[in-house]
Write a structure and sequence with these properties.
0% of the residues lie in helices and 50% in strands. The chain contains no helices and eleven strands. The termini are far apart.
Length: 117
């Protein structure tokens, strides 16, 4: 499985961006898909996740502003980011895994999101 993330860029505070992550192969619909981010000087953190059944969870810092969704027909997971803040500036990574398969862990390349104040 290969994951290809896109959609990052430079946006002003209060603006919006939508990240996409397209997966190859035929197991996408079985995977829990997540977005992580890493800011300079900080550890990687989980931003949002969506299970194969569509259940979602979010970091407290993005609740109400970010929405994760998936389109199994397109093998793609999205992260809609609204009301962006400078502290959202980070490299965002998508991740996919089948939680019942040991060692199942796929990462996309990062996409940089920069929010200017």
């Amino acid at each position: 499985v290969q994951l290809q993330a896109s959609g990052g860029g430079l946006v002003q505070a209060g603006g919006s961006l939508r990240l996409s992550c397209a997966a190859s192969g035929n197991i996408f619909s079985f995977m829990t898909m997540s977005w992580y981010r890493r800011s300079p000087g900080k550890q990687r953190e989980l931003v949002a996740a969506i299970t194969s059944g569509g259940s979602t969870n979010y970091a407290d810092s993005v609740k109400g502003r970010f929405t994760i969704s998936r389109d199994n027909a397109k093998n793609t997971v999205y992260l809609q980011m609204n009301s962006l803040k400078p502290e959202d500036t980070a490299v965002y990574y998508c991740n996919g895994r089948r939680t019942w398969v040991r060692g199942d862990d796929y990462w996309g390349q990062g996409t940089l999101v920069t929010v200017s104040s």
